[in-house]
Amino acid sequence: MKICIVGSSKRFFSGLTTHTIFLANALAARGHEVSMVNLRNLVPLFLYPGRTRVGKGEYMVDYAPDVQVYDGMDWNSPRTWLGAVRFIKEQRLDAMIMLWWTSAVAHMQFFLALSSRLNGRPHLIMEMHEVVDPLEEKILPIRLYSRLAGRVLIRQFDAYTTPSADVNKKVCSTYGIPAEKVHVVPIGVYEQYTGVHRDEARKKLGVEGFVILHFGMIRQYKGIPLLIKAFDLLPAEIAEKSLLVIAGEDWGDDPKLKPAIDSSKYRHRIIFRPYFVPDAEVPVYFAAADVVVLPYLRTCGSGVAHIAIANGKPIISADLPPMRECLREYEGASFFPAGDTEVLKEMLQKAFYRWQKEGHRQYTFNNPNWDDIAKRYEEIISSLRTKQ
Residue 121 burial (CB < 10 Å; 0-12/13-18/19+)? Predict the structure, then answer.
């Protein structure tokens, strides 16, 4: 089949970009003619918290040679939109998969969807990575625009995919989509972020003892101050042999984070690196860690969890339906009630004692790989073709 994917460019590199590249390559590896339309400039740079690192090329994953790439569409340039339409028309597509994560790109996606309807009408599939972005949800004008733009855009599609059954229900209720049109397609394991030796990683980061890692973009909904509070509750004999490492690009929307770090009685045992971590450094953090903690207050899924799985790390996660679903068969996962610092403290203690007793233990998990995910998309597209 001829399939085009529309998603985040490498210029605004993120976990979503990695996901897009892996999906395109997996479909191409199964013999499909795959093309890619990059959404290159997403917003005015002054509005983007990570603007200092945009376009630096700090990544080690890339498209397979046989994936054709249009790079790309800019939020403020209709000329680039027309170029994308010409590119898509030349492909004579069977299906187009668009990724939804922010309303900032809705106008570009709507233009592509409408143009595609007028040029050969490929089947349109929306891959939902968010229902409504938490930051957009906070600001009334943006929240109203996001919901309106989302409804107008999303209803143009023939099918939808979500990473979990919980997100599936939310998408149906928020956008009024019939349940039979929404399919669960899980996130694949990010095996490319593995392979660094533990001792080498610890030497690079300058860490020792029991290493607790929170990794990924720093946002208010990630619940990091709760993790710091739980760390503060640890007995001194545990905390003084532990390190809490917080690493990721800080969006600056959590006013409690910096005060929580500064006032921590174990401040000297906290390593705070609030910057974008280049791709080559990602496996270093996970190789060095003894446990990965995800204290989210809400989420639609977690690429960080799948990197931790690929590295066989123990995971302590907030007990949210999407996390419970994606980790349900992973032996190394344990859960605590979201927001409960006392239970989280107890789980950190258990993880510490297990580390003292067993040393560095790795877990295995037969998570869906990217070939499995590509097969799932084949099934969805084939079912749409059958219904024509």
Answer: exposed
Which residue from 150, 153, 88 is spatially nearest to 119, judged by alpha carbons?
88
Q: Retrieve residue 291's tokens.
A: 């446990």
CA 9 to each of CA 13, 95, 185, 186, 373: distance values in angstroms, whole numbers, following the listed order: 6, 20, 22, 21, 21
State the average pLDDT over residues 290-300.
Answer: 93
The SS3 call for residue 305 is helix
Task: Report residue 315: phi and psi, to 5°.
Answer: -125, 130
Around 115, how many Cα atoms within 13 Å sit in the side-chain half-sphere?
A: 20
Single out the residue of 285, 353, 272, 344 nearest to residue 313, CA to CA. Answer: 285
Residues 64-106 have pLDDT tens digits of 999 999 998 998 999 999 999 999 999 889 999 999 888 778 8
N-term to C-term CA, the chain: 16
With b meaning 16 or more CB within 10 Å and e meaning fewer, what string describes 31-49? ebbbbbbbbbbbeeeeebe
